[in-house]
Amino acid sequence: MPTNSNEIGPVPAIPRRHLEEEMERYSLEVFEPKSLPYQTKSLCPDCLLQDKEVRVIDATVYEEDGKVMMSKTCPDHGDFKEIYWSDAEMFRRSMRYWFKSVGIDNPRTECEDGCPLDCGLCENHLAHTALGLIDVTNRCNLRCPICFANAAASGRVYEPSPEQVLEMMKNLRRNLPVPCPAVQFAGGEPTVSDNLVQYVKWAKQLGFDHIMIATNGIRMAKSVDYLQQLKDAGLNTIYLQFDGVTERPYLEARNQDLRPIKDKVLDHCRSIGLDGVVLVPTIVGGLNDEELGDIVRYSIENRDIVRCINFQPVSITGRIDYEERQKMRITLPDAIKRIEEQTDGLVKADHWYPVASMLGVGRALGLMKGVPTVELHSHFACGMATFLFVEDDGTVYPITDVVDIEALINTLGEVCDLYAGRSMLAGTRAKLKLLGFLRHIKKKNFMRPIITSFLKKGSYSSLAAFMHRVIMLGMMHFQDPFNIDLERVQHCTINYATPDGRIIPFCNYNTVHRDLVEAKFAEKI
Predict the structure, then answer these.
(1) Strands 282-283 and 306-313, sheet pairing
(2) What are the tens digits of pLDDT across the range 147-168?
(3) Which residue intervals of 117-223 are DSSP H helices?
(4) How many domains does one find in the chain?
């Protein structure tokens, strides 16, 4: 362990340009919507999976029978065709809310070979890191067929030293203009590491506002004392693998029925007062896509500690023929429509908005505080989200019954533009804009905390009261070799830190770089 390992101070402040010197940069702008068909760049899956070669090829995104498809041709392996989004109209609607983010001011790598090989982040990356991931081990206490990584399959153990993990965290905190505010320890199964409690302590000391562990929950279910240690160290959120409410998804995807484990983790969280649980279902066609509504109901029943569900349509990382892929493949619109059907219309398809639609929340907060703040961003096709508001008596309202989302987006844009345009009395006028927005709130008791936080130039911690009244439904479709769109990667805000000082977008890491990083730093078993 590093010298003086019990106390690690915050990363020294790095000089950064003051907002006043670059205010024009913070106008809220939307990308020009694309017209189908359009061209992008992708990878040849056979070159990657069969020949272990990264070959960038042209790809066309186009509409066919109301769906959005991707086609691409490799000179050696021929033609490939893959579904991109199953609903072209929803695709076009999402494009309208694709706001431009502030990128990274201190890239770690230069552009030499192009995306995806220059990851680090490079100067062409168009967003900053909102969530940093650190794989603390690739060892696991399960053997899941759908896992991104495990030591048994790779034949090697990747487990960075404590010194390397500490430096990876420091590297994330050095990001400009916004130090990475959140870190997630992942794997493998991170609780297999004997150093995890120490890592959580260091993360807290380094200034991360939000500290998460992605876990199957087995060790936490066995020991409430272990969970208490993590909470005492600074853990905010358990990112809990949760594939359904019946035994079948667990037996087929995880090789054992883990439902009692999940229930026990929630019981232990309750007993120690850890009320930040995110349920993480990996959605596989024909396996658990009929249980999405039941998962929503499970979260409502456990709303005292469950803050969010993050649905993840499966990424198909291995070699598999087209017909089998189509059986497994679920795109964002597929899952959203199933949730509408399975919740009897409680959560409708038009309640969902792309992640980037809420970019103005972070930007407006930052402008009112005078300090750049993390922005919720992604490519419009990467992720969608909505909220459920829950009364004390259990009555549930979708977000559209609580607030006018279009009015919220427009108001945040106006607040940002007041500052970006250096308008006279921008702060006072921004507060008046937010007060005027109150007329668009249908249930003011839900929204009062978030408006108050803006008016007081608050921090994210001041939104806690608001978040404890809601359940967030998120959905992120991570890419695989068959459907990867390198334009999407440029907008990624979920990034892996690696021992060699790089910060790599999620989909590029799991599609291209994971094997390279593990081969460089792992030990064979």
Answers:
(1) parallel
(2) 655 555 667 899 999 999 999 9
(3) 151-154, 162-173, 196-206, 218-222
(4) 2
